[in-house]
Amino acid sequence: FIGSYWVTGLKAAAAMAALMGDAPTAQKYRERAGAAAQHYETICWREDFGYYVADVTEKNCRSSYGPGCFVDQLCGIGLSSACGFGHIFQPDHEARARDAIRKYNKVTQPMDKRRPVDGQNHFFPGDSGITVCTYPHGKLKDGMTYATLVSSGFASPVVAGMLLDRNVAGALEIAGNVRKRHDGRHRSPWNEPECGLLYSRAMAHWNIYDQACGHTYDSVTAALSFDPRSNASNFKCFFILAEGWGNFSQTGPAG
Fold first, then answer.
1. Phi-psi group of 145: left, alpha or beta (phi > 0 → left; psi -120 to 50 → alpha; rest → beta)
2. Among 12, 68, 181, 212, which residue carries the largest CB count within 10 Å?
3. What is the model's pTM?
4. pLDDT in tens, 220-255
5. By the 8 A CB rule, do 136 and 104 touch?
């Protein structure tokens, strides 16, 4: 998953260099980003699995997800989409990988709480969520230490990426399960526990809102646009900019 951050960081460095008028440095980082993305695709994408895996072997796989379906395999997509860079790797592969997470990593707590499905035992009977890692195609040795954890913050980049993929149904399924768990019946809507109460990773949900609105903003060029993923013919949203905020609305034929 570090690869997704690395490529996004290189793209950001290229954009900053271009902003400063340093064309050679911008070109250098753009080329590195492209090369790194291609290497990641070559080494980590498994066409037969339909998702990205860790480049490890039996000798160095300790605590690694290895061939497992890891929730964070594309976690950099939250930052990449927020910066307006779009997909990090091949869009079709990314979309398939995120849908694999939806398919393979979903867990639901049975009515018998003596058999918790989430590693931190946060679930109530009937709760569903996305676990850190599953092994639909086997695992190397013991796999990950924290494979059974369920975190709403881990789910956010997956949902944001699905909205970028225009997989609205998949995004609503995962986000809907988070909101059902925090609808006020069993726990506060304003406190999503993870490794502690009021855990900050839930702030990643803001990126879901950005992508649902298709919101892009560039303060340097004073460019602002919206590409809503639903209700495009009768859409309204709130937005925040560098020096202000407001409401946006659009009506009429989509597109």
1. alpha
2. 68
3. 0.92
4. 888 899 999 999 999 999 999 988 999 999 998 765
5. yes
